[in-house]
């Protein structure tokens, strides 16, 4: 699993870097929904959703994201 709980904050601390998400999306054919990424990385849904949203807000990110219903694509 790519996550662990930070002992100081009690929050999940992801071990996945943006490059891990990029490779996963490439492996899934260049586009992927939140749940597909969760399944491949064996990660927490909220963590992946937040990461995709963070990448969307970062102009330097190679990952583009948009909201579709309650997921990110």
Provide structural commentary.
Strand 1 and strand 2 form a beta hairpin. The mean pLDDT is about 85. The protein has three helices and four strands. Helix content is about 40%, strand content about 15%. Strands 1-2 form a two-stranded antiparallel sheet. A two-stranded antiparallel ribbon has the order 3-4. It has one domain (about 5-70). By secondary structure, it is an alpha+beta fold.
Can you count the beta strands?
4
Task: State the helicity in percent bands.
Answer: 40-55%
Strand order of the largest sheet: 1-2
The low-confidence runs, each spanning 5 or more residues with pLDDT under 50, are: none
User: How large is the share of residues in beta strands?
Assistant: 5-15%
Largest sheet: number of strands, sense, barrel closure: 2 strands, antiparallel
Secondary-structure-derived class: alpha+beta
Q: Helical element count?
A: 3
Number of spatially distinct domains: 1
Q: Termini, distance in Å?
A: 22 Å
Average pLDDT level: 83
The outline comes out as globular
List the helices and strands and how they pair.
Elements: E1 3-5, E2 12-14, H1 18-27, H2 34-41, H3 45-57, E3 67-68, E4 71-72
Antiparallel strand pairs: 1-2, 3-4
